[in-house]
Write a structure and sequence with these properties.
Largest sheet: 7 strands, mixed
CATH topology of the largest domain: Aspartate Aminotransferase, domain 2
Strand content: 5-15%
Order of helices and strands: HEEEHHEHEHHEHEHEHEEHHHEEHHEEH
Number of strands: 14
CATH architecture of the largest domain: 3-Layer(aba) Sandwich
Shape: globular
Bound molecules: pyridoxal-5'-phosphate
Number of domains: 2
CATH superfamily of the largest domain: Type I PLP-dependent aspartate aminotransferase-like (Major domain)
Length: 436
C-alpha cells in the first residue's frame, strides 16, 4: 500500500473550506468509501499524486484528455496564446476557426455558439428548443446526464446516480414536472410520453452513446426511430455529444449512425482540457440566438481565446493523426481482457459484463447485461468498491463509480492495456478470496 499522507492532509484541509472537499461530487470517492487522492501532475497516460505515487489513468479528466495529459503541442499552444492575452470581451479569429472546424466535421453544425461547459450547452440547447417550438416539456432518458441545470437533474446519470441523488433538492417541482423521463433503449416509453402530452414536448434529448450510467450503446436503429418519433410529433432531437463528439470519430457519433440532430451539444474534447462547450445546429434554428434572435444567452468567458486555442490544437492533432482506429483497437484489447476478468469472476460465483463504444468502456460487476439505467443500478457497489481499490493499489486509476466510463487516450500503449488487464484479473481474484 502506497502512502496517501499528503493526499489525506489536503483532503482534511479541503474539507474545512470546500463543501465535501471537492469542486465536483464524483471526485469525492464516496461510492468507493475512501478519500480521494489529490493530483499533482499528469503526463501522457500517467498521473502523479501529491505523495509522488504514479498511476496509469483511465479517467482522463472524464473525457477531454483524448491525447493524454499535457500533450506538448497543446500545452505549447496554450502558453503562446496566454502571452497574447487571456480574453478581451471581443471576438477573436480563433473562435471563427473553431466554429469552422467543428462545422466541417459535423454536417448539422451549420452554426456554432461557444460556451464554457457542457452544462451551459445543455441550458442553451433546451432554451432554443423551447423557443423554436413554443412548447415547455423535454423528454430525457433515465441515466443520461446533460449537465447540472435545473431541468436536467431528473433521473440524471453520472454523479447524481453514483450518490443516489438523480433528482436534486432545490429544483422547483413545477420545473422538474416539465422533464419527462423515458427508458434508454425503449422506444415504447418515448411513444407513451408523446401520447401523454402530444403538443407539449419541445425536444427529446439523448446521449447517442450513453456514458453516464456506465457505457450503454443504443440498440441498432433505435436512434433513427427516436428521431422519427420526435419529428413526427413536432419536437426537436437534441444529441448530447459532450462525451461522444470527436471521441468515436472526427465528428458526431449520431451522424455516423445516419441521424441528423436538430441540435448538438459538444464539450470536453473540443476544449482540449480547458473549459469549452458548444451548441450547434442548422442556421435556421441557431439564428434564434441573440443578438439576431429572441433567445438570450451570453458568457463573459465564452469563446475564451486560451481555451479555444487548446481546443483548436487538440482537434487539429486529431484531424491530422486520425487515431480513431487505433483507439478502437485499444478499446477492443482492453474489452477482451476485461471479459476474461469477468469470466474469472463467474468461476467464483460472481457476475458482470463489459460494455464498450470505441475507447469508452465500463466493466459492470453484478449485472450480466446493461442496456438501461435500471440494469446499471443492478451492479454490486460493494464489490465494485473493492475492485476499484484493487486496481488503485496496482497503480491503475479508474473512475470511482460504476456509472462512469473508463477513457482510453492516444497515450495508452498496448503494454499499458496489458498491465491493466493483469491488474483487473488479480483484483477480481482478490474479490473471490474475500480480500479487501
Ligand atoms: C460531462 C457532460 C456534460 C456536462 O458537461 P460539463 O462541462 O461538466 O458541464 C453534459 N453532457 C454529457 C453527456 C456529459 O458527459
Amino acid at each position: 500500500m502506497t502512502s496517501r499522507k499528503k493526499s489525506d492532509e489536503l483532503f482534511n484541509r479541503a474539507s474545512v473550506k470546500i463543501p465535501g472537499a471537492v469542486n465536483s461530487p464524483v471526485r469525492a470517492w464516496k461510492a468507493v468509501g475512501a478519500n480521494p487522492i489529490f493530483i499533482e501532475s499528469g503526463s501522457g497516460a500517467t498521473l502523479i499524486d501529491a505523495d509522488g505515487n504514479s498511476f496509469l489513468d483511465y479517467v482522463c479528466s472524464y473525457g477531454p484528455a483524448i491525447l493524454g495529459h499535457a500533450h506538448p503541442r497543446v500545452t505549447q499552444a496554450i502558453a503562446e496564446q496566454a502571452r497574447l492575452g487571456l480574453g478581451f470581451g471581443a471576438p477573436t479569429r480563433l473562435e471563427v476557426e473553431l466554429a469552422e472546424l467543428i462545422s466541417s466535421a459535423i454536417k448539422c453544425a451549420q452554426k456554432v455558439r461557444l460556451v464554457s461547459s457542457g452544462t451551459e450547452a445543455g441550458i442553451t440547447a433546451l432554451r432554443i428548443a423551447r423557443a423554436a417550438t413554443g412548447r415547455p416539456n423535454i423528454i430525457k432518458f433515465d441515466g443520461c446526464y446533460h449537465g447540472h441545470s435545473d431541468s436536467m437533474l431528473v433521473r440524471a446519470g453520472s454523479g447524481g446516480m453514483t450518490l443516489g441523488q438523480p433528482d436534486s433538492a432545490g429544483v422547483p417541482s413545477a420545473l422538474a414536472a416539465m422533464t419527462m423521463v423515458a427508458r434508454y433503449n425503449s422506444i415504447e416509453t418515448v411513444e407513451g410520453l408523446f401520447r401523454a402530452a402530444p403538443d407539449k414536448i419541445a425536444a427529446v434529448i439523448v446521449e447517442p452513446v450513453a456514458a453516464n450510467m456506465g457505457v450503454v450503446n443504443p440498440d441498432p436503429g433505435s436512434l433513427k426511430a427516436l428521431a422519427e418519433i420526435a419529428h413526427h410529433n413536432g419536437a426537436l432531437l437534441i444529441c448530447d455529444e459532450v462525451i461522444s463528439g470527436f471521441r468515436l470519430s472526427f465528428g458526431s457519433v449520431a451522424e455516423s449512425m445516419g441521424i441528423a440532430p436538430d441540435l448538438i451539444m459538444l464539450g470536453k474534447i473540443i476544449g482540449g482540457g480547458m473549459p469549452v462547450g458548444a451548441v450547434a445546429g442548422p442556421a435556421k434554428i441557431m439564428d434564434l440566438l441573440a443578438p439576431i434572435g429572441p433567445v438570450y444567452q451570453a458568457g463573459t468567458l465564452s469563446g475564451n481565446p486560451v481555451s479555444v486555442r487548446a481546443g483548436l490544437e487538440t482537434l487539429s492533432i486529431l484531424k491530422e493523426t486520425n487515431p480513431y482506429a487505433a483507439l478502437d483497437a485499444a478499446g477492443a484489447r482492453l474489452e477482451a481482457g476485461l471479459h476474461e476478468a469477468v469470466k474469472e469472476l463467474r468461476k467464483n460465483g460472481g457476475s458482470g459484463c463489459v460494455n464498450r463504444a470505441g475507447s469508452l468502456l465500463t466493466m459492470f460487476i453484478g449485472p450480466e447485461r446493461v442496456r438501461d439505467a435500471d440494469e446499471a443500478r443492478g451492479c454490486d457497489g460493494g464489490k465494485f468498491a473493492k475492485f476499484f481499490h484493487g486496481m488503485l493499489d496496482r497503480g491503475i486509476n479508474i473512475p470511482p463509480s460504476q456509472f462512469e466510463a473508463m477513457f482510453i487516450s492516444t497515450a495508452h500503449t498496448n503494454a499499458d492495456i496489458d498491465r491493466t488487464i493483469a491488474a483487473a484479473r488479480e483484483s477480481v481474484c482478490d474479490l473471490a478470496r474475500g480480500k479487501s
